[in-house]
């Protein structure tokens, strides 16, 4: 399973967060949290995949693995940047103060330390894990700044006159926040400020990412404990408008926020500029069980981030859209390659894609995966968007384990993991359903 199309999946065993998403030397690089020994979470490594077009992916094996005391129990999430032609990976190393004697991949009582670390490479493929790792931010001991254990997932960008690093943290495991640091050389970092929303957005912020789109700042993050209901996934990926002033070194966050995806499976997003300079995000799609082939974990399709009237859109990347170029009449003609279904919905209409229902309720887009998802307590089976404003153009990317539903080219997206989709389409929509699959087989 070394080469994949359209959706990047685990090569085997387990994957979670995308890391180090970067366009470098003519290739898109995505590193990812990887446990190579079984289809479960464990001591994290970084797997590595590359693509020339964000459509066709090639796995390149393990890039990063534990070798130092600071990352002995895992190379957690982080990012990649290029400086003077070299690629730098910046990540969180984890060291257990005490490991569970029955499962060394777990700590006892969350007693561990988090260290921000770095390693570099001349070509982006070869990393000397034994010699080249450096500590750039040691474990935080001042509770007024951050948390010794729960400070992780650095994302770095180049500002006007310096490098900046944002990392997720918590105040007393009650309020999520981000910390910001500044550096001139990627080696020595100075703490500059922090930003939070009190306790309204969960107890811990993971995988923060700050960037600007047409001069407007955006903060994406994964808020732990955001939802307070009985469903399983209380941790959710969200986004909000933000600003960071390099002169005053102050970050301000909007009072309003939105989900990055309304299907509740998407988590741990990371963004990058593509070859054309568009801001593109990818994220982990959480799966409740391994596939019949024994792998678990995959990623959403790359999405272009844009802002319109203060609303953050996640649009289908043009390379993905253009890959679906062969018209078909029946789902069975697409086989396992997957397909794109395009249609419009009037109020009360629905389309059933092999057991996955997409329907309109008033001005809201709704989905129901009850027929194609495992039954367990607290599972999210139905999803619903806020009120839609731009029309009712629906595009659904459908493959064996993932359905991504875009309304109005990313005004809202509902992405859902599925199991056992059927090869049929039914529904009561009065409009024609256009089906496209890949032109190359």
Mind explaining what this structure looks like?
It is a single chain. The protein has 441 residues and is mainly beta. It has one helix spanning 318-323; strands at 3-5, 14-24, 27-35, 45-51, 56-64, 75-83, 86-96, 99-100, 103-107, 112-121, 134-137, 152-158, 163-171, 175-183, 190-196, 204-213, 216-224, 236-245, 250-253, 258-259, 266-273, 279-285, 298-299, 303-308, 311-316, 324-328, 339-344, 350-353, 356-361, 364-368, 382-387, 393-399, 402-407, 412-417, 425-427, 434-438. The strands form eight sheets. The chain has a six-stranded antiparallel sheet. It is globular and about 60 Å long. 48% of the residues are buried. The mean pLDDT is 95.
Gist of the model:
The protein has 441 residues and is mainly β. Helix content is 1%, strand content 53%.
Approximate shape: globular
CATH architecture of the largest domain: 5 Propeller
CATH fold assignment of the largest domain: Tachylectin-2, Chain A
Question: Low-confidence segments, ≥5 residues, pLDDT <50?
Answer: none
Q: Counting H and I runs of at least 4 residues, what is the number of helices? A: 1
What is the structural class?
A: mainly beta
Q: Strands of the largest sheet, in order across it?
A: 26-36-27-32-33-34
Strand content range: over 45%
**Biggest beta sheet summary:** 6 strands, antiparallel
